[in-house]
Design a protein that fits this description.
- With 471 residues, the protein is an alpha/beta fold.
- It contains 16 helices and 11 strands.
- α15 packs antiparallel against α16.
């Protein structure tokens, strides 16, 4: 049986059956209580079993999994207390990713990959504006125009606005107000760095599902330290895109001995804050059904109450670090959290949550029949890799050995909607200029100017059409 040791108390070791790994999980607790180390030991455990891992590094302290840890008296003491016989310091195969390409290989997806649903959520559009966005994708598809990056989308929207009367009969009303609202949101998104994400070469989901030559699962770490501070909506949209793509492309595997892939989502509340109901419904659907694809999803947040109830009910593994009760609201949250565990008559769960020390947690795993075990207070095992971040030089060295350094590091800008519309605009301008036959030089200048301005309005200033005037 494939197992992962989580920790132990004086009576027993707490071991998770890897076959339950696709039943998802939750790691929660106040800041500084040990959530990151718990995430680290789970990632290590899965990697040792040959399960690829993807995790978002919010605080910048997960890169240490790529380097072997060092001996320390506290680690030695903890290893003896938990009764670990095969503990050894070792590194894990790791690949670093970064949407902004500062601390990892760039991660890109095309506008078409994102789709109108996730994009509408990212832009916080209302129903009318979302409808226009859906029309944009449909028109681009009907016209054979690729939507790859932000300039493609801007050009397509601008063209729709200028040709709304022609398009109305087939695609419905396209109001200039909605077009303008979407364009303004795109400008804000661009200022937050979204242009770094939308484009090519698009990431291949298979590259998050690799093993090394020894059969260990590769741990993919997305550096999200800048992403969450500059554009939390982009972070949420990326993770939702990842889930959607996995759900739509992976085959059914049923109940396997272990997952095919495990995802850890830190700061999980960013996935749900201000998300429209239709998007939350989609997340709930994916979490409920993706386990049959062999994917395990683990949310990390300060409180389980950050997660919608329907999603929380799907999470099998529960690891709760300490919470503090400073206010009446805090006490209500702690009581609610305690009620999510299967009762252990030997523990006052509500009281223990407030007493847990750093590195301790309340843990409930799933039995082989899928039922939760009674909650136990345990010491979390120490990681075998380094606690804390790599140095910049160590990260650079690791990236230099990456098999993906030449695959994604150079961006591509092939012909798509922007270029196609620009070519059409130029051809129309040339044809219009040739068709003008004025009687005088003055009338020629006026007629040509009028025609070129008309073309520019039709195609849109976003296309970069040059308009020059000569006497």
């Amino acid at each position: 049986m494939q197992e992962i040791l989580i920790g132990a108390n004086d009576k027993t070791q707490i071991i998770m059956d890897a076959a339950m790994g696709n039943r998802h999980g939750m790691i929660s607790g106040a800041t500084g209580t040990g959530k990151t180390v718990t995430l680290q030991i789970l990632a290590e455990g899965y990697s040792r079993l040959g399960v690829p891992v993807f995790m978002a590094d919010i605080k910048g302290d997960l890169s240490g999994v790529a380097k072997a840890g060092q001996a320390h008296e506290k680690i030695t003491e903890r290893v003896q207390q938990i009764r670990i016989d095969d503990f050894q310091f070792r590194a894990n195969p790791t690949v670093f990713w970064d949407i902004f390409a500062h601390k990892g290989h760039p991660v890109r997806a095309t506008i078409s990959d994102m789709g109108p649903l996730l994009l509408a959520s990212l832009l916080e559009l209302n129903d009318t504006q979302s409808g226009v966005l859906y029309s944009c994708f449909k028109i681009a598809d009907d016209q054979g125009m690729l939507l790859l990056d932000l300039k493609d989308l801007r050009a397509m929207l601008n063209w729709m606005g200028e040709n709304s009367k022609t398009l109305k009969s087939e695609y419905g009303n396209i109001s200039s107000a909605s077009i303008g609202a979407i364009q303004r949101r795109l400008l804000v998104l661009d200022e937050q760095g979204a242009s770094e994400f939308f484009g090519e070469p698009a990431i291949k989901i298979d590259d998050f599902q690799r093993t090394d030559f020894s059969g260990n699962g590769v741990i993919s770490i997305l550096d999200a330290t800048d992403l969450t501070s500059k554009s939390p909506r982009l972070y949420a949209a990326f993770l939702l895109w990842l889930l959607s793509d996995l759900f739509e492309t992976l085959p059914e595997v049923g109940d396997a001995e272990q997952p095919k892939l495990v995802l850890f989502f830190d700061e999980a509340h960013l996935l749900f804050d201000r998300a429209p109901r239709v998007l939350v419904d989609k997340i709930e659907q994916i979490v409920r059904l993706i386990r049959s694809k062999g994917v395990g999803i683990y949310f990390i947040s300060q409180s389980p109450m950050d997660i919608p109830e329907d999603v929380l009910g799907q999470l099998g593994l529960k690891i709760q670090h300490a919470l503090r009760a400073y206010t009446p609201k805090d006490r209500k949250v702690i009581k609610a959290v305690a009620d999510t565990f299967r009762n252990n008559p030997e523990l006052d769960t509500e009281q223990v949550i407030k007493e847990l020390k750093t590195g301790e947690a309340l843990v409930s795993v799933l039995n082989k029949d899928g039922s939760p075990t009674p909650v136990e207070r345990v010491m979390i095992r120490p990681p075998e890799s380094q606690i804390g971040a790599l140095t910049e030089a160590e990260r650079t060295e690791s990236m230099g050995r990456s098999p993906y350094k030449d695959r994604y590091d150079q961006d591509i800008d092939r012909e798509s909607a922007y270029e196609m519309l620009k070519q059409k605009a130029q051809k129309m301008a040339e044809m219009s200029a040739q068709q003008v036959k004025p009687k005088t030089g003055r009338s020629r200048q006026t007629a040509t100017e009028a025609m070129l301005k008309s073309v520019a309005r039709s195609i849109g200033s976003q296309l970069g059409l040059p308009i020059t005037h000569k006497s």
